[in-house]
User: Fold these one by one.
Assistant:
Number 1:
Amino acid sequence: MHSVVNLTVHGIGPTNRELDPGEDGTWVNVEQFEQVLDAVVGRQDVHITFDDGNASDLEIALPRLVERGLTAEFFVLVGLLGEPGRLDVAGVRELAAAGMRVGSHGWAHRDWRKLNAAEVKQEIVDANRVLGEILGRPVSRVAIPFGSYDRHVLGRLRRAEVTCAYNSDGGRANPDSWLQARNSLRHDIDAAWAPRVMDGTPSPPLRARRVAARAYKRLRG
């Protein structure tokens, strides 16, 4: 069975907003981002995704993707659109007009394992609905904040008719799987990182740990 590698970008370059605790760990500079893009060119088995709806998605990422003939999928925080350092509604539409896919990262970047009933509706149902109204078409693909899920979260997504859910479990993924593992760019990556993630073969112990961790997450709750 062929497989794919899903990469996750968060923020790129300077930002004019205060980062959340630990968020700087997934922020990369422009050179690091360009090194990853250059490694991805021509790879049909690699998918690029973006989380959080940062302004750098539009200002830095989009022109560099277009320049290389690449497409990507952007998962935005619907309730934070228009805030300093974030995409606004016009920016979301510009990404879509440029041929990029846009999905939901929820409403306000909350852990979906710790929601009450009202928050579940806002994060999973309302976010998809509002984003669909912005784009003029249904939205049914999501990226789970913090990669935090359990059997209850997966059940809620199924009931909300989500057609694809991305997590942060790492490793390669079956392209036909409803739940997709991703690999996050981090602040300390070097030029060898992307080729290593795309072409490296994890050791048997690492593969076993990943399989066990995914099984545990699906069943816990």
Number 2:
Amino acid sequence: MKKKNPSFLEMYSKLINVSSISSENPVFDQSNKKIIELLAEWLENIGFKINIQKIQKNKKKFNLIAKIGSGEGGLLLSGHSDTVNYNEKLWKSNPFELTIVNNKFYGLGAVDMKGFFACILDLMTKIEIKKIKKPIYLLVTADEETSMLGVKFFLKFSTISPDLIIVGEPTNLVPIVGHKGNITKKIITLGNSGHSSDSEKINSINLMHETIFYLLKIKKKIKDFVFQKKFKVPYSTMNFGYIKGGHSSNTICEFCELHIDIRLLPKFPYKIFNEIFNEYLLPIKKKWGGYIKIHNLHPPIPSYEISIKHEKIIKTIEKITKEKKTVVNYCSEASYLHKIAPTILLGPGSIKQAHQPNEFLELSYVKKTKKIIKKIIEFICFL
């Protein structure tokens, strides 16, 4: 006899209780094993067949692929198990306790994207399994917030070809059919340590200042390169997100580090960006040589745009959600998943709450999410 799953609220609470931070900094990076095991147990109780992938590149990280039903095609519901890091001082409540205030669920990952999993699991206990004519899959990935390692590992070995993929990112339950790509780079400038009175020595902060001058030229170039009016920010962007260097005012800085984030429109080829980036930085590289080092923080994430040939299924999702399709500035695993099936981002809550202190999901989204996903399941898997 199968074990009965906890209630929606209990499952949601337990998911929030489990910390599953992924970070480029190994000090903060964590395994997602516990959250994968929790989801696997609950899905198995419902009747799903479970496959847990151990990602060899990082033995602490796992994917979960669950399946119920048989046959070809079907629906793949997808999401990531990891969250970003947090600053406890900025939280009004414990990030790892589900707190309900004014009809809002607070907790780290509440909207991005543990709330989606809680909704799906609760919904699946109410689905009439006997009516399923095509399979329902649930994919839970690792490291979406950093390297996209999990989804890339999944695709390396996947043999499934669903009719539709829904990625449950927080979209206010509006269907998202395109987004920008992402490139993150680390720029390091080196100098000669010494006393501040020695003006002959190279100061890495001065060198970074000179480098930023050229980066700002690149920023303007990519902004003016191409426009797509359907995006809220209709051009490609560059953001200076992190800088660190130096020890004291009376010491010449020997090391400075800058992290930049680039968001390219779908119509901006990565190859062209690379050519612009290298061309504009060539003068300073020639001048300073080994004093400047540039690395990708993680492999570039491609932009995504659903093919026009899937217009029929998009229209159906618009009808179900009662919302018009749109595009967004952030990126997601749709960049990779669309290679095996038409992919739409659609999930509860607002992206404005993601990666923020006091992250929350509004209670009103729970019922709506289950209702919409149920209709999509019926459309794809019951017919």
Number 3:
Amino acid sequence: MPRQTEDQNVLEFARKWEPYGGADASEILLCFGLDVDSFKARLHRTLTRQTVPDLDPDLRWRLLRYAATR
């Protein structure tokens, strides 16, 4: 089974937490060792530098909007 990249992990985490308005700071720190702003910056880079073929366009837009709120 192929190992997920860190970008894929960030995206999957954001997908999971999107319906709840995003994860809280402690969950992000525990999973990624990042503060919220750093996580959002990483998510934004992931969404803008590569295409994610199985990502619904509406979900992509919501995640980009979430990532922009710092």
Number 4:
Amino acid sequence: MNISFYVLSESKAQDFLGFICQLSQTALNKSTQSVLILIEDETLLSTLDEALWAQEATSFIPHQRLPNHNTESAGIGIADTDNKSLTPVLLGNHMPADFKGIVINTTIHPVNRFMTTTNNAHPTRILELIKPDPSSVQEGRHKYKSYQQLGYELTHFKV
């Protein structure tokens, strides 16, 4: 599995939502796979939900919020979620069962933590976002070491 770390500049970090929207659109344009944006912060989740609908007047990014990890929502069960019936971009605090696609991780945890609680999930690529503040950099180093120990292919980009 390929893990890419995006180390954000101060200006990109200030437009964090815009960067996530841009990265999601780029991932969709370059792949036929679904994109999962992992978010544990409910405020960020709601704000990103709005931002994806209003990205550009001519090209919004179709997406769907997953039900909370501990609940089920009408029509979408955690255990029986099928990526083929969902929108190209998913937002949530967990990984759906059988997910096979690209993960944009905004959480402080490595994605393999979410994979252990999910039935048969195998992301093909993980995009880690690192803000320029000390705590985000420290969390990024922890995630890097975790992925390195698992033998994943690691790359990083300064944006």
